[in-house]
Each structure stands twice: as C-alpha cells, then as structure tokens.
Specification:
CATH superfamily: Aldolase class I
CATH architecture: Alpha-Beta Barrel
Helix content: 25-40%
Radius of gyration: 16 Å
Distance between the termini: 10 Å
Strand order of the largest sheet: 1-4-5-6-7-9-10-11
Shape: globular
Number of domains: 1
CATH topology: TIM Barrel
Length: about 240
C-alpha cells in the first residue's frame, strides 16, 4: 500500500485542512519543515515517506478564486514524485491544461463536477492512467454540484458515474480530513466489495499506523495522509516499516 502525502494549496501556501471547512484552513505548522512554501513542504514530505506521488489540492481553483498552475509547474520540476492534482476540472480542456503544467494525473472531483456527461467527455480526452476520480463524501453522502450525485451513498454514486469502466478511484471523506476522527472503513469496504477490480485510494481521518493497517485490510491500495505526518503521529520510520511488510 502506498502512502500519498497531501499538499492543500491556498493563496500560494500549504495549509492544513480540517473537515472541509476551508475558511478555517491556516498555513501548516509541521514537525517536518519550517514554513509553508509548497516546494519546501513537498520535498520534506518526499524525504519522509519516499512516496511515489503527492496529492495536490488547488483550493483556490476549487473555490473559484484563482489557481496554482505556476506552483504545479515548479513542483513538477523540483520534486521527484508524480503529482496528482485536483484543480476543479470540469471539462477536457481544463484537464489538458493541468497535465501540460506537469500533473501526472488530473483529478476529477465530484464536489465540482457539474453533470455526469462532463466525466464522460473528460474520459474521452484523457488516458485512463492520467485521470483519477475523487468521490468526495461528507456526513450526508456524496458532495457534488451534480444533482444526480448529491447526497448519494458511495456505491450508488459510483454506479451512476460508471465506476465499472474506471481504473482508479479516490474515496475522500472530507468531513474527516484533519479531525483525527479515524478513517471511514465501512465506506471503503462497501466500495471494495462492489468494485473489486478498482485501484482504490482512501483519504480522510488517518491518525496512526494502526489506521493505515486497517485501511489496507479494508481494501485500500493507497492512502492520503497530511495531518498525521505534520504532527509526527506517523513518522518516516513508520512508513519505512510498512513498506518492508
């Protein structure tokens, strides 16, 4: 199972997310690095985890207040890890622009997806290995600008999205991000049972190595981690030990 560190970008800095309440996000205070400049934070996370990829959430793009394409370009030059970038992609041209900036995968998040057909159009233009669907989940079900998805449980939402024809899906429980509440194992197990061939990434609520092992047991192929790394709850030694098993 791969550990994928998270960079949440807001107004040019790396911030620490909490329960999807973005007005409360503040620049990180990390045991791994001084400051919150994206390249330095990315390099520190890479050193600590030897990760194959970094998950980058462009919160300005998601909120419609700007973008971090220049930061993505810089990260792609400086960091030896693939960049999986969520920048509120809603059409194929936006995905192409993101990939050209250096993203290895363009993430299509249900939170900003306006209609089911938009995913079909993006998939027709983007190779499967360069796209990742993010199923964004809150306390009351799937979060989405698309009325056909909004509020559904994970499995029916993925059925509506044609998940049986996808290769990679992120199950991101936004209401648990940064809360140390623990991951939603039940949601992940339900998706794994319904779609056994998917490569599944889990995110939200991870607080310990015990949680990482539980997620692996529930069917996760990779896990997003941010707060637990910056707080020192999961260390470089922990990650190395997991990789040796």
């Amino acid at each position: 199972m791969d550990i994928i560190p998270v960079l949440d970008l807001m107004v040019g800095r790396v911030v620490l997310g909490r329960a999807g309440e973005r007005s409360r996000y503040r620049p990180i205070d990390s045991v791994l690095v001084a400051g919150s400049a994206p390249p330095e934070v990315a390099e520190a996370l890479r050193r600590a985890t030897a990760c194959p990829a970094l998950y980058v959430a462009d919160l300005d793009a998601i909120q419609g207040t700007g973008d971090h394409l220049d930061v993505v370009r810089e990260l792609s030059r400086r960091v030896t890890a693939d960049l999986w970038v969520d920048a509120a992609i809603v059409e194929a041209t936006g995905a192409a622009r993101l990939l050209a900036a250096g993203a290895a995968r363009a993430i299509v998040g249900t939170e900003t997806l306006p209609r089911l057909e938009a995913l079909t159009e993006i998939r027709a233009a983007v190779p499967p290995q360069r796209m990742l669907l993010s199923l964004d989940v809150g306390a009351d079900g799937v979060l989405s600008a698309c009325s056909e998805l909004r509020g559904l449980p994970p499995v029916p939402a993925l059925e509506a999205l044609g998940a049986e024809t996808l290769t990679h899906v992120l199950v991101l429980t936004l209401d648990r991000v940064g809360t140390a509440a623990g991951p939603d194992l039940a949601a992940l197990r339900s998706v794994r049972a319904a779609f056994p061939r998917l490569t599944l990434v889990a995110g939200g609520g991870v607080r310990s190595v015990t949680d990482l092992r539980a997620l692996a047991g529930a069917g996760a192929d990779a896990v997003l981690v941010a707060t637990a790394l910056h707080r020192g709850w999961i260390t470089a030694g922990d990650v190395a030990e997991l990789g040796d098993r």
